[in-house]
Amino acid sequence: xxxxxxxxxxxxxxxxxxxxxxxxxxxxxxxxxxxxxxxxxxxxxxxxxxxxxxxxxxxxxxxxxxxxxxxxxxxxxxxxxxxxxxxxxxxxxxxxxxxxxxxxxxxxxxxxxxxxxxxxxxxxxxxxxxxxxxxxxxxxxxxxxxxxxxxxxxxxxxxxxxxxxxxxxxxxxxxxxxxxxxxxxxxxxxxxxxxxxxxxxxxxxxxxxxxxxxxxxxxxxxxxxxxxxxxxxxxxxxxxxxxxxxxxxxxxxxxxxxxxxxxxxxxxxxxxxxxxxxxxxxxxxxxxxxxxxxxxxxxxxxxxxxxxxxxxxxxxxxxxxxxxxxxxxxxxxxxxxxxxxxxxxxxxxxxxxxxxxxxxxxxxxxxxxxxxxxxxxxxxxxxxxxxxxxxxxxxxxxxxxxxxxxxxxxxxxxxxxxxxxxxxxxxxxx
Length: 430
Ligand code: UGA
What we know:
With 430 residues, the chain is of the alpha/beta class. The chain has helices spanning 10-21, 33-40, 51-60, 70-76, 97-109, 126-137, 158-163, 175-184, 197-228, 232-240, 261-274, 280-304, 330-340, 356-359, 369-373, 393-398, 414-419, and strands at residues 2-6, 25-29, 64-67, 79-82, 114-118, 144-148, 168-171, 192-195, 311-315, 344-348, 364-366, 378-381, 404-407, 423-425.
């Protein structure tokens, strides 16, 4: 099939490449010509393991091409995926202006039947709005269907998640569109569910909110475990073995970040507010998350005293490992708090770059963790990059001013570090 993917961001680029891999002819479209130029050269402008190789491969085979030509893209493709951003408005609601623009363009340039597939995360009822926007801007009376097909891939695992999803959700009320979508996904072995567009939109928000809730639950419990001298890791393991609970998303730490959970939980809360339904559990999920990095720092203060003029090494900047994405990263919140307290901050991240405004405030990024840790009073772990586990902690300790390690991701082997004379403290984990 010929597929147009509008929006060459994280989800759009991955989606396009996965459909190319599944044997379709794909055009990736974006208004940002720098992104398009970079992708056409085979250069991924963001970090995501495995994706650049796939990009080069499918560019060479001419299975995918990238363009800024909206009219041509819509003319030449009958299946159009919408993968543009839906950032948060000030009040937490989702900003649909990019989606609306795409719908207008489709209305304007459509030249025959089109199936418009929304993969962007959008509030419940958006499929209907997209249809209205198309009708309003349609120059000729061509038929079309709007389908909601949410994406569940994680940054850092995008390729694997998109190629081997747990499920495919098709929100469609048209048999014609449903059969096209089923054909597209026919090589996938996972369950494919067909439901209404509204239900599909709700599934996306419900899934992200539920995962965020698991994280806030375990983080709040970790605070109690600290008081009771119980290891939260053992609790996560013990409850995770119950198949009804499951082992994932029970890793206590400094809280969730990224471009999805914070935004999507806010958007669902906003929907609840608009429909006069108080989603009180989600309100607490947000509250716990917003205070979790503060709790982490408070625990460090209880051990170190005031952080003023303390020399701190922060390991990890990105909101999770295997990505350079800094959006809503707890590590950045930690830096801002440390800056407000006049600590001296050195940072390391294997991939992510320290934003310029933070560099301007005197925070220095080093290329090696060992160098970062030299002459510091404490090391704080901000992101659970696996390579931090493999460091020569014995050697690192010899160059520190005082041997404190505060593990904001509960990722290090506490016993091993203690053997080397380091004073270790995790979250609900000593
Ligand atoms: C999330 C969802 O997991 C995807 O299914 C979804 O498609 C995506 O949002 C989206 O809506 O686009 P992502 O934000 O890429 O994916 O990353 P996650 O792996 O879910 O991690 C989110 C945050 O939770 C990270 O900051 C991570 O460090 C934190 N986390 C995760 C924990 O603190 N503890 C855990 O046990 C798991």
